[in-house]
């Protein structure tokens, strides 16, 4: 047991959401390395400020950053019926998913609404992790299991991921693990140790850049792991950082609760490839998604170019979109991209106004601002950067 002193009691008071918000194994390291602000993600602190967000973006796209994303909690599913149960949760066909593979999936409810858009990892034949976006899928999965009649165990393991992202991330990984790590393919994983620290490493990440996620399997060694990675990365310009809003919007990547929620279905997002309503396997939302596919959708997600002075920060509320004085949608995520030298955004609009080139307006106190529907993703649409080793 840790001996409390007045000094470390005062330290405990430095950040004060309360004990209901958990600190990650990397929390102290991120503060030591300059984290100045935090948000909450899956009931955990997550660093959101290491200084200038534009500099964080350039660090990511030019060199590499290390991000504490332990808030991506894992739902662990094991047991003889694990594969069948996981398939029950998602409309994506998992019948050919191999051990050691990762897949981006959607988790849907009975109405076809999206509850989460996690990464699924298959560690063994009957062993899965669901690496979560920000919503309580542990409770959903445990609730489904009560009446599913399947032999599964569901819980949250001692697993805390880091993201090492950027063009130099491969060099850092070679320094840590040797040349053999370069054989790890995009969206595959490997069980590995670093000086006795147990890890799962995957070629995934929330940046659309070359990147890796390191899933720590022993929370007592978080500080040690952080320092080892930062030391290995020093010759390659590695900086501490946070997930980049600029880069993820450039890449058209979703932020759950912003760009999608329980009232959004996959077809509205153009994610038909993640839905197979005709597969033999049953999954939650199957009938609803068959019906939506047949009837079509009344709104779609689009990319926008917003013609105004550079935004100083991402939007903190949904902005209405209008056409001829009528509200036809909303801006869900907007930011200024210094690389593209324009304001870019993801938005949800009525289908009849979703065509490329459509001009819409955002009402502001100083008058309407023009927003033009454009192709998304805004940069590297085929993800050649992330896929290339």
Give the SSE layout.
Elements: H1 6-12, H2 27-32, E1 37-41, E2 44-49, H3 53-62, E3 64-68, E4 74-78, H4 82-89, E5 102-104, E6 107-108, E7 114-116, E8 119-124, E9 127-131, H5 137-148, E10 153-155, E11 160-165, H6 169-177, E12 189-194, E13 197-202, E14 211-216, H7 222-233, E15 238-241, H8 245-250, H9 286-295, E16 299-307, E17 319-323, E18 326-337, E19 342-350, E20 359-362, E21 369-374, H10 384-387
Helix pairs in contact: 6-7
How much strand?
25-35%
Derived structural class: alpha+beta
Distance N terminus to C terminus? 44 Å
What kind of assembly state do the chains in view correspond to? single chain
- State the share of residues found in helices, binned by percent: 10-25%
Rg for CA atoms: 21 Å
What composes the largest sheet? 6 strands, mixed
Strand ordering within the main sheet: 12-13-14-11-3-15
Instruction: Identify the overall geometry.
Output: globular
Number of helices: 10
Describe this structure in words.
- The protein is of the alpha+beta class and 389 residues long.
- It is built from ten helices and 21 strands.
- It has helices spanning 6-12, 27-32, 53-62, 82-89, 137-148, 169-177, 222-233, 245-250, 286-295, 384-387, and strands spanning 37-41, 44-49, 64-68, 74-78, 102-104, 107-108, 114-116, 119-124, 127-131, 153-155, 160-165, 189-194, 197-202, 211-216, 238-241, 299-307, 319-323, 326-337, 342-350, 359-362, 369-374.
- It has a six-stranded mixed sheet, with helices on both faces.
- A hairpin with a 4-residue loop joins strand 18 (326-337) and strand 19.
- The termini are far apart.
- Residues 27-277 form the GCVT N-terminal domain.
- Keywords: Aminotransferase, Transferase.
């Amino acid at each position: 047991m840790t001996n409390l002193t007045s000094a470390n009691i005062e330290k405990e008071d430095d950040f004060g959401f309360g004990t209901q918000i958990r600190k990650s194994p990397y929390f102290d390291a991120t503060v030591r390395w300059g984290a100045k602000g935090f948000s909450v993600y899956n009931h955990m602190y997550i660093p959101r400020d290491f200084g200038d967000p534009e500099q964080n973006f350039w660090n990511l796209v030019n060199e590499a950053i290390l991000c504490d994303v332990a808030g991506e909690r894992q739902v662990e599913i094991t047991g003889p019926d694990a594969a069948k149960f996981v398939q029950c949760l998602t409309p994506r066909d998992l019948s050919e998913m191999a051990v050691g593979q990762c897949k981006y999936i959607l988790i849907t409810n009975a109405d076809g609404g999206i509850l989460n858009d996690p990464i699924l990892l298959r560690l063994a034949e009957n062993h899965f992790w669901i690496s979560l976006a920000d919503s309580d899928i542990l409770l959903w999965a445990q609730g489904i299991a009560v009446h599913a009649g399947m032999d599964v165990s569901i819980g949250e393991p001692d697993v805390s991921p880091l993201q090492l992202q950027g063009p130099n991330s491969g060099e850092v990984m070679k320094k840590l693990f040797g040349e053999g790590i370069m054989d790890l393919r995009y969206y595959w994983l490997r069980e590995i140790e670093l000086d006795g620290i147990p890890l799962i490493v995957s070629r995934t990440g929330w940046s659309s850049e070359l990147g890796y996620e390191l899933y720590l399997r022993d929370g007592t060694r978080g500080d040690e792991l952080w320092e080892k990675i930062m030391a290995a990365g020093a010759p390659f310009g590695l900086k501490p950082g946070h997930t980049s809003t600029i880069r993820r919007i450039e890449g058209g990547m979703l932020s759950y609760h912003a760009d999608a929620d329980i009232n959004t279905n996959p077809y509205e997002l153009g994610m038909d490839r993640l839905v197979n309503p005709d597969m033999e396997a049953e999954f939650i939302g199957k009938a609803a998604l068959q019906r939506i596919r047949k009837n079509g959708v009344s709104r779609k997600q689009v990319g926008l170019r917003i013609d105004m002075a550079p935004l100083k920060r991402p939007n903190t509320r949904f902005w209405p979109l209008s056409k001829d004085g009528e509200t036809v949608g909303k801006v869900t995520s907007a930011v200024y991209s210094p690389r593209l030298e324009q304001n870019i955004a993801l938005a949800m609009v009525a289908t009849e106004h979703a065509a490329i080139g459509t001009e819409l307006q955002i009402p502001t106190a100083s008058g309407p601002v023009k927003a033009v529907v454009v192709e998304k993703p805004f940069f590297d649409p085929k993800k050649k950067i992330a896929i290339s080793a």
